[in-house]
């Protein structure tokens, strides 16, 4: 399942390609992709068509596109603007906020692929959305990632290459591809993620207060890290990596840890996710790609996750894999002694 770095990579891509775009058409290709939507698929289509993408935000592993009136302009991010690529800080709208958001649950294999109309061709496409986006388009021959199930077919429409005056915008397509069909889209009003805690990359996160909250838990520290109501964005991969970096045994009771050790652990979680983000995320297969279909390459930098039997990068002890809570935990029995 995509974790914080992978979702942030997708968020940045959507922000870069779609901000300011107006949805002109929505095609539902699989009913499971809209399960949970109040009013069903027709309600989702009605909410999206004619709406403008005002912003793209994320908290932890959760992603949402804020919708605005399609008749009102929104300025798109400027290419190369570092501020536009910074992790979005959500405004945490209150219960009285009537703003609508398209919440995207990626599930185990969800992909949000952006390209010229007709470019993305996949048997696992679940929702196809067409938009008109401000500014010049990439043209029909724009590159896409090598691992994406894309490619213009013989009957695919070709997007026109915009001329010098591209103020009218260009047409693009957002396709939700989901092989395992655990993902879904849902339009909601008000706070899009009321139950989700802040994540390690959130500048508003109070690390000391979070550490105190973690130490109140009697569960194993890894289980607490995976609880999205305590701290969001950390999944199995980055929990194992952060625990290894902080030298903490995953099965230690959170309540038995010192405050400074929990603060260190949270710092390591932030650091490893920042490195993963810089590498485009972690891709073990073609199920995780960015919006252009490119895979991340942080898997080659992992210290313990997925490295059973290989030497620990710190001490050389073979990495151990232990079945735990329906998944695997990877650790170094020599280094992780706290």
Topology at a glance:
Layout (H helix, E strand, L loop, with lengths): L3 H15 L3 E7 L11 H9 L2 E9 L2 E8 L30 E6 L4 E6 L9 E9 L36 E9 L5 E6 L17 H9 L5 H5 L10 H10 L13 H20 L41 E5 L2 E5 L7
Antiparallel strand pairs: 1-6, 2-3, 3-4, 4-8, 5-7, 6-7, 9-10
Helix pairs in contact: 1-6, 3-6, 5-6
InterPro entries: DNA_glyclase_Znf_dom_DNA_BS (IPR015887), FPG_cat (IPR012319), FPG_N (IPR035937), H2TH_FPG (IPR015886), Ribosomal_uS13-like_H2TH (IPR010979), Znf_DNA_glyclase/AP_lyase (IPR000214), Znf_FPG/IleRS (IPR010663)
Protein name: DNA-formamidopyrimidine glycosylase
Pfam family, one: H2TH
CATH class assignment of the largest domain: Alpha Beta
Strands of the biggest beta sheet: in what spatial order? 1-6-7-5
What characteristic shape results from the CA principal axes? elongated
Helix and strand element order: HEHEEEEEEEHHHHEE
Reported by name, the CATH topology of the largest domain is N-terminal domain of MutM-like DNA repair proteins
Mean pLDDT: 87
**Largest β-sheet summary:** 4 strands, antiparallel
- From the alpha carbons, calculate the radius of gyration and give it in angstroms: 21 Å
Strand content: 15-25%
Distance between the termini: 28 Å
- Write the CATH homologous superfamily of the largest domain: MutM-like, N-terminal
Regarding quaternary structure, what we see is single chain
**Structural class determined from secondary elements:** alpha+beta
- What proportion of the residues is helical, as a percent range? 10-25%
Let me know the number of strands: 10
Domains (count): 2
